[in-house]
Amino acid sequence: MKAHVHVTLKPGVLDPQGAAIGQALGTSGFEGVSSVRQGKVFEIEMEGTDRATAEARVDEMCRTLLANTVIENYDIRIED
Amino acid sequence: MKAHVHVTLKPGVLDPQGAAIGQALGTSGFEGVSSVRQGKVFEIEMEGTDRATAEARVDEMCRTLLANTVIENYDIRIED
Known about the structure:
3-stranded antiparallel β-sheet, homodimer, Mth169, Chain: A, elongated
């Protein structure tokens, strides 16, 4: 079973890396880009378990290790 | 219009960061995790344009700046 986890900065949290990429896009000739935010994605392969258990385990992984819940949101998608 | 871009390492490309996270999950008591791969996600906000044009522009951004196509795959999703 495979879990896809997206970790993104909460709205309002400063994202200097995203801002730098936005600026680089501008200087590369891409106009009309109003904002860029960068986040992380984790693809976690787990040994056989049911969907609900997998989701609960990945949620705990996010809270304890993968995301800093003070400044980041996470989103979990389980794929069979 | 908002574009979500996922940049992930191609299968077979070594991912030491993902491996380190997998190991950290193991030592944190999460068993049964067979592999972790880490990637990047970009959320790009663009000023008004149609869907096809937006997708073509983001594709060019990926090829020129956001992804290293030698070792990375990218995936674009346009949201209205």
